[in-house]
Amino acid sequence: GESLKLLLGIGIPVIEKRLKSLLDPLIYFLHSKGIEIASLLTPAHRSSILSFKVKDGARLAAKLARGKIIVSYREGMIRVSPHIFNTDSDITRLISSLAIKD
User: CA-CA distance, 67 to 47, in Å (whole number)?
Assistant: First the structure.
């Protein structure tokens, strides 16, 4: 109940805007590397979950986990789902840890 009160106190539109802004740098990075993004990015369909496909995704997900970066590996894709408690530096750290070569 208290968690719900906190989220409603912040406001769902504020949370939605924040989560999308957290993912924007990751989306930019992935696009710049030519990485396939499976999630819909159109405004009407975009969410705070971002899935992308890289070669050897299972190994990358394991590497991220060893670095205490929590992602999911599902259906051959890396799934990132930040929440309101994540910070800009969390996303910067994720991007730095991806180390996807050109």
Answer: 25
Percent of the chain exceeding pLDDT 70 equals 96
- pLDDT tens digits, one per residue of 45-86: 999 999 999 988 999 999 999 999 999 999 999 999 999 999
Q: Would residue 72 be called left, alpha or beta, if left means φ above 0 and alpha means ψ between -120 and 50 degrees? A: beta
3-state secondary structure of 78: strand
Residue listed under structure tokens 């750290």: 93
What is the identity of the amino acid at 3? S
Task: Give dist(CA 11, CA 76) in Å, integer.
Answer: 34
Secondary structure (DSSP) of 82-102: --TT--HHHHHHHHHHH----
Beta bridge partners of 34: none
**The two structure tokens encoding residue 35:** 């990485």
Residue type, 1: G
**Rounded average pLDDT over 88-96:** 95
Identify the pLDDT of residue 63.
93
